[in-house]
Specification:
The protein is mainly alpha-helical. It is built from 16 helices and four strands. The longest helix has 35 residues.
């Protein structure tokens, strides 16, 4: 395919993504109900229900403005060949072509982040503040940004640098070696994310002795689940929203409870939430997710190997010669249809896993307690109670609250 046709294809795919998301957001916003669902009366009051709808409306409108801005920037950049101009200006500036590639990605990352910084500030300090969620101070916001830059530069730089080096040294078969590396990297991240990455941004402390820890340990013993690593994370440092998550494999497994979760739920509800997380482990959801992620990366890298040496991709982005970094950027856009399909499949599997974990928690803990916990989480987080089915299908990794409650009641 000639460069001109490739450029049209890149812009068309970018436009299609943008228009699809706009349509989904619109129909999801218009799908809101005027009356509180019967299942949530007594938990949600009319005022909270109205507030959740206002929260959805505020976020949807904000998303429309920010996505439109980014769409205009991307299409302008592609149409004007700005990426090629930047690449040509950097060529020869450093003795090492790999360092030049990393510099290009660094410039694009910083430019993108700075352009979106006003949106990030507005969302955190205006929208989240307005609805009572924001606990982030200006100092924390700035510190998070700086830490994020350093982490991206170190980890992202090493991974991208290795990829560029393998492409240069090995050629089209680079994908096999990089796939092996990424597979090991994903395994290590899964095992050590909570131990190494999370403490860079949040404080993790072991759950102290008391009735809650005793109840959790008793549950673990009853269900033959070895668990000593129970941590509390200071989620209230940034938001009043609550959550819990499971990470790790084997002896490295950890359960992390947000302090906001502990403050807003009863002991029985917290055990039920933990039982849900244990269900993910017992049902091998963590392993399945890891295997699927590794498979997806392998498919993506193989397809990348078929396109990365095509000079027409570089020409389409405005360079007059082959540029591996530019071809990687072009590939990211060309791969988007496949990425959407794999994302849909992963969401379908994830929603299935959530139902299975709910069922496990209901059978080993208390179904009513889990239902109450889910309702409270929805209320406290102002979740959208009536999302459009198409929006759920495209974006939700968890089933909507009402669907989860119906499934639990059937049990």
């Amino acid at each position: 395919m000639q460069p001109e046709a490739l450029l049209i294809l890149l812009i068309a795919l970018t436009s299609l993504d943008f228009i699809t998301e706009l349509i989904l957001d619109y129909i999801n916003l218009k799908y809101q109900k005027t009356e509180l669902p019967e299942e949530l009366k007594g938990i949600y009051n009319d005022e909270e229900f109205k507030k959740s709808q206002q929260y959805l409306k505020a976020n949807t409108r904000f998303g429309f403005i920010s996505s439109t801005f980014n769409f205009i920037i991307i299409v302008t950049t592609l149409s004007a060949g700005l990426l090629g101009c930047i690449q040509e200006s950097l060529r020869g500036s450093l003795e090492n072509s790999i360092l030049e590639g990393l510099l290009l990605f660094g410039i694009l990352f910083i430019a993108s982040d700075l352009l979106n910084l006003p949106f990030s500030i507005y969302h955190t300090f205006v929208i989240e503040e307005k609805f009572g969620f924001n606990k982030t101070t200006v100092k924390t916001f700035i510190t998070d940004k700086l830490k994020g830059y350093v982490l991206t530069a170190v980890v992202g730089g090493l991974i991208l640098g290795l990829l560029l080096w393998l492409v240069q040294k090995i050629g089209p078969n680079f994908w096999i070696y990089f796939w092996i590396f990424i597979s090991v990297f994903l395994l290590l991240v899964n095992m050590f994310y909570t131990s190494i990455i999370v403490p860079l941004f949040n404080k993790l402390v072991p759950l102290g002795a008391g009735e809650l820890r005793e109840a959790i340990e008793n549950y673990s013993k009853r269900n033959n689940f070895s668990l000593t690593n129970i941590f509390v994370i200071d989620g209230s440092k940034r938001s009043s929203k609550a959550n819990a998550f499971f990470s790790g494999i084997g002896a490295r497994k950890k359960i992390v409870l947000y302090d906001t979760l502990i403050n807003n739920h009863t002991q029985g509800e917290l055990v039920a939430v933990l039982a849900h997380e244990v269900g993910h482990y017992k049902k091998k959801h963590v392993i399945i997710g890891l295997i699927l992620s590794i498979f997806q990366v392998g498919v993506m890298l193989f397809i990348l190997s078929l396109l990365i040496f095509n000079p027409n991709l570089s020409h389409a982005l405005g360079d007059n010669q082959l540029s591996i970094p530019l071809n990687m950027i072009a590939f990211g856009i060309l791969y988007s249809p496949i990425s959407h399909i794999t994302g849909l499949l992963m969401n379908i599997i994830s929603r299935k896993h959530e139902y299975e974990a709910d069922a496990f928690a209901a059978q080993t803990s208390a179904s009513i307690e889990l239902q109450n916990a889910l309702k409270k989480l929805s209320v406290n987080n102002l979740s959208n109670l009536t999302p459009h089915p198409a929006y759920v299908f495209m974006h939700y990794s968890h089933p909507p609250l009402l669907e989860r409650l119906k499934a639990l009641k059937k049990l």
